[in-house]
From TrEMBL:
Family, similarity comment: Belongs to the binding-protein-dependent transport system permease family.
Subcellular location: Cell membrane
Transmembrane segment boundaries: 62-87, 94-114, 120-145, 166-196, 216-237
Protein name per Swiss-Prot or TrEMBL: ABC transporter permease
Lineage per the UniProt record: Bacteria, Bacillati, Actinomycetota, Actinomycetes, Pseudonocardiales
Organism for this UniProt entry: Lentzea flava
UniProt-listed SUPFAM superfamilies: MetI-like
All residue ranges annotated as the ABC transmembrane type-1 domain in the record: 59-236
Chief site of localization: membrane
Alphabetized Gene3D superfamilies for the sequence: MetI-like
Membrane topology listed for this record: Multi-pass membrane protein
Length: 248
């Protein structure tokens, strides 16, 4: 309880989202009442399905997909940023071209060839790599010239060892903060994939938003629930990243 009071409540909230499908009162596809009725805590959607159950079933795949994409993008960006800081910044030049393409367009292009969840993960990670690489490059460039790194060079340590043991630990907080930002970006892009009908997840929160739009006047909760859910996940992820950074 004390940990939650110190700011760890977002972690508990994200954990709740991950186990929510096991606690949902109905399956995501079950018809439980009339369309746009007030039956249940959040009412029903345009097909009479329970909004709360669909929300609970859609949270876990969205969070896990976003986390996988953010981790992949940050991991690749960290590697590229370290290499660019150690050798030459020109390593970043090809990624500047990727950064010039809007993330949603990258998503559309990749999903044309890979219309599945793996495609969403790859597309979101690809859109994240250039920014992560720039952040890590800027942080690592301030560390590489320090005395302990120079001593490691003189001792004949391998480059991979120096970057992994002497440089990366000193920029770990920056990498964690960047991971939090990439996760938020991933949540938005994964939700956008559902909104555009490109997601394979039947209860994707973006899909819930687009399905609720025609009946927003009749059942506004069905629209507000996934929108608020996306915002809560984004804020919670940033809070968790902040707490981990402070602890590190």
């Amino acid at each position: 309880m004390a940990g939650l009071k110190r700011g760890w409540w977002p972690l508990a909230l994200l954990t709740l989202i991950l186990i929510a499908p096991e606690l949902a009162p109905h399956a995501a596809t079950d018809v439980v009442g009339l369309p746009y009725s007030t039956q249940g805590l959040l009412g029903t959607d345009h097909l009479g399905r329970d909004v709360l159950s669909r929300l609970m079933h859609g949270g876990r795949p969205m969070v896990l997909t976003s986390l996988a994409a953010a981790a992949l993008g940050t991991g690749a960006g960290t590697l590229i940023g370290l290499v660019a800081a150690w050798w030459r910044p020109f390593v970043l030049r090809p990624w500047d071209a990727v950064a010039a393409v809007p993330g949603i367009l990258v998503l559309l292009l990749v999903l044309t060839a890979m219309p599945n969840r793996a495609g969403i993960v790859f597309a979101v990670a690809l859109a994240s790599v250039p920014l992560s690489a720039r952040v890590v490059h800027a942080a690592a460039a301030q560390v590489i010239g320090k005395a302990h790194v120079e001593h490691a060079k003189v001792r004949g340590e391998r480059t991979a060892w120096i970057l992994g043991r002497e440089v990366l630990p000193l920029i770990g907080t920056t990498v964690l903060a960047d991971l939090g930002l990439r996760f938020v970006m991933a949540v938005y892009l994964v939700a956008a994939a559902g909104f555009l009908g490109l997601s394979t997840m039947s209860s994707d929160w973006g899909l819930l938003v687009v399905e609720a739009l025609p009946g927003a006047a009749l059942q506004p909760v069905a629209l507000l629930a996934p929108v608020v859910g996306i915002a809560v996940v984004a804020v919670s992820a940033n809070r968790v990243a902040d707490r981990v950074g402070e602890w590190a």
